[in-house]
Amino acid sequence: MNESELVTGPEPTPRKSSKLFLAFTGTIILVLVAFILAPTPTCTPTALEKLLGVPLPAKCERLCCIGCYERDIVWNVGETACKGTADCLQKAEADYTLALKYKADPDQTPKHKFTTFYHFSRAEQYLRQSGVKEQPPLFVGLDSDRSAVKGELETFFHQKRVEYHNAGKRKLYPKMVAILGEVTSVFYHPGAREHQWAMQMEHRLKDEGTFPGVVPKAVE
C-alpha cells in the first residue's frame, strides 16, 4: 500500500484550552489599551474621544476608565483632612447640611448644582474617613442625593463637549474658548475632572496655535 493510500483520519481540532487562552489574552490586551488611553488621574475620555472623532455619550464615559481609579474631584492636600471619628463625623455633617441647603435653593444653575455636588462629595469623604461601619441615620440620603446631582452635571458636561466638538469641526476657535471658559466657571474646583478636561483642551489649542492671540510653540 502506498503512503498516499494510508488513512490518516480526521484532522485534529484546536483544543478548547487554546481558544480560552486566546480569549483571555485578548481581554488582557483590551484592558491594557483602555488603561493606557484613559488620561490620569481623573480618567476623562479625551484620548478615546480623539481617536473616535466624536464625544462619548455620558453613560459610556466609564468604559475608558477600565483599570484605573476614577475620581470626580481630586482633592487638594488637607482639603478633606479630619482627625478621629468625632471630628470626621462633625465635618461630614457640616458639609452635608450645606449641600442640602444648596439643593433646596430655588437657584439651580449648573454652577450652583456643582456647589451642591462639591459639599455632598466632601461629606462623603469625611464619612469614609470616620471609620464608622454603618452609615449614621443622618446621612441616609447622601448617596442618592449625590448621584442625582452628579447625573445632572454629567448631562450638562456632555452637552458642552458636544458643542466644543461641533465648534472644532467648523474651526470656530473663539467659540471653543468660550465653551471651555464656561466649563471651568461651572466646575470651578481645579481638581474637578471637568475642569481638568477644559484645561487640557485649552493647552492643546495653545500648543496647536489655534487659541486666539497665542503664538504656537516653536518646533525644536
Give descriptors for this structure.
2 domains; 220 residues; 59% helix; 0% strand; mainly alpha
Write a brief structural summary.
By secondary structure, the chain is an all-alpha fold. The chain is built from seven helices and no strands.
Content-based structural category = mainly alpha
Tally of alpha and pi helices: 7
pLDDT averaged residue by residue: 79
What gap, in angstroms, lies between the N and C termini? 76 Å
Shape: globular
Instruction: Please state roughly what percent of the residues sit in beta strands, choosing from under 5%, 5-15%, 15-25%, 25-35%, 35-45% or over 45%.
Output: under 5%
What share of residues is helical? 55-70%
Describe the structure.
- By secondary structure, the protein is an all-alpha fold.
- It folds into 2 domains: 7-70, no CATH class; 75-220.
- 59% of the residues lie in helices and 0% in strands.
- α6 runs antiparallel to α7 (193-208).
- The termini are far apart.
- Residues 35-46 and 61-70 have low confidence and may be disordered.
Topology:
Elements: H1 16-37, H2 46-52, H3 84-104, H4 110-130, H5 142-169, H6 173-186, H7 193-208
